[in-house]
Every structure is written in C-alpha cells, then in structure tokens.
Amino acid sequence: MDLAAEDLFRAVSNFKAIERLLVRRGVDLRRQDRLAGTAVGMRWQLGFDWRAHHREMVLELTQFDPPEALTLEGSSDQFNLSIRMTVVALTRTKSRLLFETEAQPRGMKARILLQTAKLGKSQLDRKFARHVGDLVTYLIANT
C-alpha cells in the first residue's frame, strides 16, 4: 500500500468502522466488554447466516501492539479461529499488510469441511486476498 505503516495499522484496527460494516452486511453484533478504547480484551458476540445455517461466534482481541500487529481469537460451535494482522513498513510511505488466518476444526464434521475446502485452495486464496483487499480499502477510506 502507498501508506505509512502507522496509517495502515490505524485503518485495520478501526474496530468501529469494522463493526459498522458487519452490521450493514447483516451480522448481529454485540460488544461484550466495557473497554473505552482499543485494547486487549475487546470482545464481540457475532451472529450470522452462512450456508443456510445460523452461526454464532465469539471473537476477542488478544494482542494489540501498535503499529505492528494485532491478533483476534474466536470460537464457534465448529471452529476455533485465529486472525493475525501484521503491518510491515517497506519505506516511510509504503507498507504491507500480512493477514493470516487459521481455522482449527472442533469436530469431525468441521474437519471434513476444511479438507473439502483445501481441494480448491488456490481459488479460495485468490478470493480471500481480494476480500481482504476490499476490506482494507474500505477501512482506509473510512478512517
């Protein structure tokens, strides 16, 4: 991105903008902490429809190290999820976002779902990269 690392980190850690985006996309979002600012311990209860089923997930901010990294840990009935965003400064005005996710199955049904997804991994990777790029573009525009 043609953006300083601090500015990129500020954009991807703009949780108010992320909350607004999720609500606009039909996610039932409830904040479960009473923290005033952005800090480790922020926690959300998410409800959404995916593949014709209603899903519930709890997501918590477990690492917040501006302007470099943040980690979100989550769990649902089928998966444990980890999302790590790391901002790397390339120059004073350019930076790169490393967006890593890890889904761990919590049962046999979830394990089979992940194995099936791995068959189309290259296509999923392209779609995922495009969606992350769209998210970052939205967050930069709304910060």
Automatic annotation (TrEMBL):
<protein>
    <recommendedName>
        <fullName>SRPBCC family protein</fullName>
    </recommendedName>
</protein>
